[in-house]
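Quick question, first post here. What does this chain look like in 3D?
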Amino acid sequence: MRTILILFAFTVSLLFATGANSQDTGTSSATISWSPTTSLNVAGYDIYYGTSSGNYDSAVSVLNPNATSVTIRGLTSGVKYYFAATSYDSSGDQSSYSPEISGVVGSTASAAAAITSLLTSPGQFGFTVSGAANSQSVVQASTDLVHWVALQTNTGTFNFIDSNTAQFPHRYYRTATVAN
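> Answer (accepted):
Ran it through. Tokens below.
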């Protein structure tokens, strides 16, 4: 009997943040965060990544079932990476891929915004966007990961709260740096 694993409790909580390594070596890191699965028999997670959508040529295993993030080091600065995750149990059964996220890591021209969750009232979802002081970030939402709608644009660090989440069976969020 094959066990079915549920990867994410809330699909909106897979977050992407980038940052350059402390030395200027042309490499960067990406921290990928998620909400842990609600399945009781999860042994860990695999985070897959690559430089084209849906084609993951590298992976990092997270052996802790209680982990909620991993930092992937040695990525090439200025290159767009695509990430997806799976969970697995002690028998090796693996869930399907999570929704894909992407971003340009370690861009020195304009640092990518980082987002972190906020506590909100029922029917709302919110997060803080930590962008560069002189850089505009746009918060976008989608119900199908294909069509994206801009919800808010702001400069620097700001809080975003979506009070319309009850209208959607699921909703995905992303931030992007607005080109000047």
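The two ends are 54 Å apart (CA to CA).
Residues 11-104 form a domain with the Immunoglobulin-like fold (CATH 2.60.40.10).
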